[in-house]
Design brief:
Blueprint lengths: L1 E6 L5 H11 L3 E3 L4 E3 L5 H6 L2 E3 L2 H10 L2 E7 L2 E6 L3 H6 L4 E5 L4 H9 L5 E7 L2 H11 L3 H8 L2 H5 L7 E4 L3 H14 L2
């Protein structure tokens, strides 16, 4: 099974993923499944989240058709590699999880259809909580404004997801997601 987590910037996607992995013995992060042109963050190293490409390398990858989907978000490219999902399709003893862009959920679901079950989770939080988390994470005022300017667009996609959770209390969020996953095995 593949679990896609998406949502508003600073809704806690990486924190939720980290805690889900601790609570589910057969859950793994799908490493190096995406490419981006944005700079690294500390959490990217922990999860081995992205392959970092130049804008030119990414655009060549688009031309070569190596992505399931790709998107320009906050002035940086993001895309999911087709080749990375072979592990998900072939490994029947483990579940995989990855955070994805809100627009990528539909493309990924279509790509995996009939190959492996996919569940999608959308995380949200009140605007004041999002802004506080961005500040605590060390984003500049310009970065915060840019990320929060996209929140209504991101929220407009939440009806496409299997479950929507307001991630205000991490323990409650993890309980709700685990219950959802157990009920949908």
């Amino acid at each position: 099974m593949f679990i896609a987590i998406s949502g508003i910037s600073a809704s806690g996607k990486n924190t939720v993923i980290k805690n889900l992995i601790k609570s589910r013995k057969n859950l793994k992060v799908l490493k190096r499944s995406s490419c981006t042109t944005r700079p690294k963050r500390k959490t990217d190293e922990e999860f081995e989240t992205y392959l970092y490409l130049t804008k030119e390398e990414f655009e060549q990858g688009i031309k070569d058709g190596i992505f399931i989907e790709h998107e320009l978000v906050h002035d940086n490219y993001y895309g999911m590699l087709k080749s990375s999902f072979l592990d998900v399709i072939d490994d029947k003893s483990n579940d995989y999880i990855r955070d994805i862009d809100v627009k990528g959920e539909h493309s990924l679901k279509n790509y995996l259809n009939g190959k492996v079950k996919m569940l999608s989770i959308f995380l949200d939080a009140p605007d004041d909580v999002l802004e506080k988390r961005l500040k605590e994470r060390g984003d500049s005022l310009e970065q915060i404004e840019k990320r929060l300017s996209r929140k209504e667009l991101e929220r407009s996609y939440k009806q496409n997801f299997d479950i929507v959770i307001d991630n205000i209390d991490l323990d409650e969020t993890i309980k709700a997601i685990n219950k959802f996953l157990d009920n949908n095995r």
